[in-house]
Amino acid sequence: MNRALREGVQASILPDGIELTDTQTGFAVELRSGDVPAMTSPGPDGDRLWSKLSLMGLAKPAADLKEVRRRQRGALRRSEPPLLDRLRDLMARIRREIPFFCERAASYDPRRLASLEDFQGLPYLRKQDLRANFPNGLIPTSTDLRAGLDDGSLTILATSGSTDERLQIVTRSIIDRLPFGSDDLFGVPIGGKQPRTAFFTTPVCASMVCRRAAGTFEERRSSISPDLYLRTTNDPFAIETPILKSFCEDVERFQPSILAADPLYLQCVVRAAKRDGIKLPTIPVIQRGFEFATRKAIADIREAFAAPVFNDYGASEENRIAIECHLGSLHVRADVVYFEIIDQSGPCQPGIPGAVAITTFDTVTPLVRYLIGDVAAWTGRTCSCAFSDWPTIDYHGRSKDLVRSRGRWVTAAEIDDAVGTPDWLDFYRLSQTSSASFEIEVVPAAGESPEVGELSTRLKHLIEPDKVRYRPVSRIDPLPSMKIGTVQTRLPTCEIP
Length: 497
Known about the structure:
The protein is α/β, with parallel strands linked by helices and 497 residues long. 26% of the residues lie in helices and 24% in strands. It has a 12-stranded mixed beta sheet with strand order 7-6-8-9-10-11-12-17-16-15-13-14. Strands 22-21-20-23 form a 4-stranded mixed beta sheet, with no helix packed on it. Helix 11 (263-276) packs across helix 12. The termini are far apart.
């Protein structure tokens, strides 16, 4: 047996052993002090140890990095307890450490969880619970919030208010936004656990963006992560040339591996670049998040940047909910969340949209069966990418954006699928003004005329044509959250469909 570490694997001495770190992938493992002699001693104990290191891709002979990452993902999965044990451990911890759950200890008794079905009997956590118990009621009693804020390890994020329920939450300042081995996920080499990322969002997407959006290049660089916050605008439909040039110059200077963007704001950048005849910079990967993305926005961004565009579904409360792979599947981040889709009768079957409830395993503010305000559906399909063991979903938009038509709830995704990508249309917003009245604002592409008859035909299976009024406009006014939004209603919507 070859007893040598693969090139790029470094050993660091710890008080009670050593740590082996793969500098090419970011994978690390600790060996106890009792295991260390076996690394250099002949015999069966050493053979077993080096066999384990080989299974983790740390030992020679060297395999290609894709195979190394596959082995290391397997090692991480093997070291992780089964899901039910993870949930039991979470219940035991929050009953000890989190005041909100301590006060409701009987409801979160891990001894009651004999199966995942039993977990479905736990109460839902809602946004009003977070507001009523912020900040100390929902963080560990051992956490020194003031010290964490002073040393920068903790931050307070304010949600954008896109669910009409703006709130604040305590989070860690640094997390690994991407799952381990994301090169295989995206099919594009991006390198490192925390690749250089440039953010282009609404002005109120997060507190850090608010503070840095108007600063200099250096002021907009994060001091704790390899991130840059690009200058943004209060009016995406009137992006001025200086903002557009700043966008291009900053991206060229920073050379990010990923551009993380609000897709409709980025679509406005594409429109402005066409208007000004400015060539957009090259970017390896674009992740669209922060807002529901229309099919037209995705198509425009992909064409303009000549780059893959992947969904990155998350929220301020937990921004690692699901991530899209290079095969087009949106995978639930099973490494950090337990994901449920429910309707009034219980768990939803594949293809049936329902309310999303998430349970988080490693957030400062634990979330248990938290109704995040979104709608999704299981696809029922198994993806063949390197993350095939993570289930796949279709994201349908916000619960508050459901409209009522033809006797059922209709989601933003269903509307957008019907609208499609007509050449003449850039943006739209459908508003339900009463139970039998809808208005659709349409922003035509430059030089195009609105073809509302075609749009009416596309939507007629969802909304009766005689109930819709079409209004061609040159811009769509942002919502109070500063997001553009594709669907809104003045009617009460359901929490759980």
